[in-house]
Amino acid sequence: MITLKGIKKTYESKAGRFEAVKEVDLTINKGEIFGFVGYSGAGKSTLLRLINGLESPTEGTVELDDKVLSELNKKAIRKERQSIGMIFQHFNLLWSRTVLENVVFPLEIAKVEKATRIKKAKELIQLVGLSGKESAYPAQLSGGEKQRVGIARALANDPKVLLSDEATSALDPQTTDEVLELLEKINRELNVTIVLITHEMEVVRKICQRVAVMDSGVIVEEGPVLDVFKHPKHPVTQRFVKQDLEMDSKETLAALKELQALYPDGDIVQLMFEGRSANTPIITQVSRETGVDINIIQGSIQSTHEVPMGTLVVQLLGTKDERQAALNLLATYPIEVEVIDYAD
Ligand code: ADP
Predict the structure, then answer these.
(1) Which of 45, 51, 58, 200 to mutate to test the pocket of ligand 1 (most atoms within 8 A of CB)?
(2) Which residue spans of the chain are classified as CATH 3.40.50.300?
(3) From the CA of 20, how far away is ligand 1's center (Å)?
(4) What is the per-residue pLDDT across 237-290, written as a single tens digit (0 to 9) for each?
(5) Which residues line ligand 1 (CB under 6 A)?
(6) 246-340: which CATH number, 3.40.50.1240, 3.30.360.10, 1.20.1250.20, 3.30.70.260?
(7) What is the pLDDT of residues 135-163, one digit of tens each?
């Protein structure tokens, strides 16, 4: 539904040429929630501006439902852009207008008749959970409520695609979760394709089905979110995953250091399991059958779009043979096992 073919975007300035996006080929399917994650400067916003037709690529094409954006005339692009809704980190609301007037605004521009646009706006306000706040002004709302207004406004023209530019980055964790749940509901109930850009892997983990990791203008890794979490290949992806699973938190690193000093021969192993394997008493079984002692260093359960995902970092203590036997046995369970070297 959204196809990016051979995309390059170069900016010319006094300082010279700068390639913000270097070589991107990608298809985003109808009805999916797709995330672009990357650190600041990776080229995410540039890519989003190319998808919504605000800018055109230096090379390559952006197709929306088989229509090549750059081949359309201005009027056709404007029409196409109406089928794309957008939400922003700082909401971009009209501060002198009420909630209802904000949501009605795109319908006024689209010249929808007054009674129809008010009816539509009220339905959307209800959908995003803001009934009763129609006459409030943005300044009277919490951050989460402001973003709900942004979402209702973005949906006013029944878009096929909703683009989210760091929409939860200014919100606290609890409100972030609420907004992410709302986006999932919109995706499910209205079948709107959602493309989001974020620097937070947590956002990707919680609601995206697929992810592309960007670095220096290129997609360095791409795939279903669970696969990427289980086997992150590129160093940038590995860093994002580690950060999100708090494997590099101060507490975890301190515990690791302490245990490694106490038992220099122990293997540090990361176990990752999906949903149901959490019920198998793996640790006790492995310990009993192989004779290794197992120190638990860190453990957590994280939600994903599909199933909960658990991670456990443990230290295996025993003779070399015992530890190898434990690793062999662990490999027979439906879990991901990785011996990690924390020295790096
Ligand atoms: P991200 O959204 O991942 O932080 P951006 O797409 O905003 O990254 O920017 C990628 C790079 O392109 C940055 O180094 C930025 O300075 C540069 N860039 C973005 N827009 C322009 C522009 N209009 N002119 C010149 N350079 C730009």
Answers:
(1) 45
(2) 2-244
(3) 6
(4) 999 998 898 777 788 888 888 888 888 888 899 999 887 665 568 889 999 999
(5) 11, 13, 18, 20, 38, 40-46
(6) 3.30.70.260
(7) 999 999 999 999 999 999 999 999 999 99
d(CA 330, CA 217): 39
Phi, psi for residue 174 in degrees, rounded to 5: -65, -45
Write down the pLDDT at residue 162: 98
CATH C-level class of 2-244: alpha beta
50-62 average pLDDT score:
94
Token code pair at residue 99: 């909630």
Q: Locate 216 and state its tokens.
A: 């220096």
pLDDT-derived band at 344 (thresholds 50, 70, 90) equals: very low
pTM of the model: 0.91
CB atoms under 10 Å from CB of 14, counted, come to 4
For residue 343, pLDDT over 60 is answered with no
Residues of the chain with CATH 3.30.70.260: 246-340
